[in-house]
Amino acid sequence: MAEPTDEPSLREVVLVDCPDEVGLIHRITGVLAAHQFNIESNQEFVDVAAGHFFFRAEVTAAGTAAEAVERLQADLAAVLPAGATVRVASRERQPIVICASREPHCLGELLLLDAVGELPARIVGVISNHDSLRPLVERFGVPFTHLPHDGVSRDTHEQQLAAAIDQYAPAVIVLARYMRILSAGFVDRYAGRLVNIHHSFLPAFVGASPYRQAFERGVKVIGATAHFVTAELDAGPIIAQDVIPVDHRFSADRMAQAGRDVEKLVLARAVRLVLEDRVFVHPPEARLRSAAGGGRQSPRSNRARGQSQPTIFLPSTGPSAASRHREVHQAFDRPISVGWCGLPRSTQRRIAFQQPLTQPAEAGQRRAQKNC
After folding, report:
1. Which helix (H) or strand (E) covers residue 19, if one does?
2. E strands along 24-63, which residues?
3. Of 107, 136, 194, 254, which one's alpha carbon is 20 to 30 angstroms from that of 53?
């Protein structure tokens, strides 16, 4: 008699989004039970204003047949309303490619997380338009490709970049401070797979030199934003954001130095969320592709026409992720409470919200005196 295995053979993520109606969770879990899938965790959310339902579950089952997953997906679609999207994704580590320019901090953070097994991905290649990052990348045993942009047209350079990316067949392409503006055609080719880090708290300070812009404006917080790349510059759906406080003592250079710590943490968080299938873009494909015949759009072009940002819903990552989130902020002496679900409609574009914890009045007074 064969010994039972300790670990299930199939480890999948079930993702559903569809028009909301009564009984959806009952139907979905019924199909999972009928197929002998065990639910290890699940989250659901209803966008009441849009009348739309989102569901994510981590499931396991015995067996290895791909047909089992295909049958599960078909049976789930059969019990859901018209227009439903059903996806069953593997929980295995996915291949990613990183594009970078000269800045090493975001790239280095991802390389280190991969090396110690704390990234749900395998970095299969790094591509840069400068050669200065080669020693860092090769120290981690990752293939490095140098594609200089000097002396070649943008079209030619993007063709070379696409060829270099495609040889790795990555699930996601991460732009870790890759300081080249990509054409609409290139963005469309990899729609929904390009994740960028921008060194400001978008929608503030779009484009180049955001820390200089922030310094000149006299802001009291600076931040970073990880987002999907679209043809509209720095305006794609937001995945993750964070901020730190600054004051009159911060020069533009000091802001940039402090901001680099935020950038690498925000990008790593966003990459985890995307690769763990914790991100929904709704409506599907909304503004991830450029308009027909369109070139690069100005930052305000869509907003001026009254088009809205698509909603991204991030299912809860559980207590451990919330604890890590607090630990990150405690490093900046910024205690917070954190939540991922149930956002009011007016703030859904931001996805994550932050709220200072209640502090004694005298502590606030001491801090105010210290900052004077």
Report:
1. strand 10-19
2. 38-47, 52-61
3. 194
Q: pLDDT (tens digit, 9 = 90+) per residue, 48-68?
A: 888 999 999 999 988 767 778
Q: For residues 176 and 196, give the distance between their C-alpha atoms in angstroms, rounded to a whole number.
A: 7
- Report the candidate in 308, 305, 326, 306 with the shortest Cα–Cα distance to residue 317: 326
In the chain, residues under CATH classification 3.40.50.170 are 94-313
In the structure encoding, which two tokens stand for residue 332, read together? Answer: 């900046």
Active site annotation includes 150 = no
> Which amino acid belongs to residue 301?
S
Helix (H, G, I), strand (E, B) or coil at 243: strand
Identity of residue 213: Q
Token duo for residue 181: 């503006």
Could you tell me where in the chain the CATH 3.30.70.260 domains are found? Answer: 10-90
User: For the domain with range 10-90, which CATH number is right: 3.40.50.720, 3.30.70.260, 1.10.10.60, 3.40.50.980?
Assistant: 3.30.70.260
Q: How far apart are CA 289 and CA 347, in angstroms?
A: 23
- Bridge partners of 235, per DSSP, are none
Distance CA 268, CA 212 (A): 24
The per-residue pLDDT for range 81-121, each reduced to its tens digit, is: 999 999 998 888 999 999 999 999 999 999 999 999 999 99
- Catalytic residue, chosen from 17, 234, 242, 277, is 234
- Nearest residue to 176 (alpha-carbon basis) of 252, 106, 229, 270: 106
Tell me if the pTM is above 0.85: no
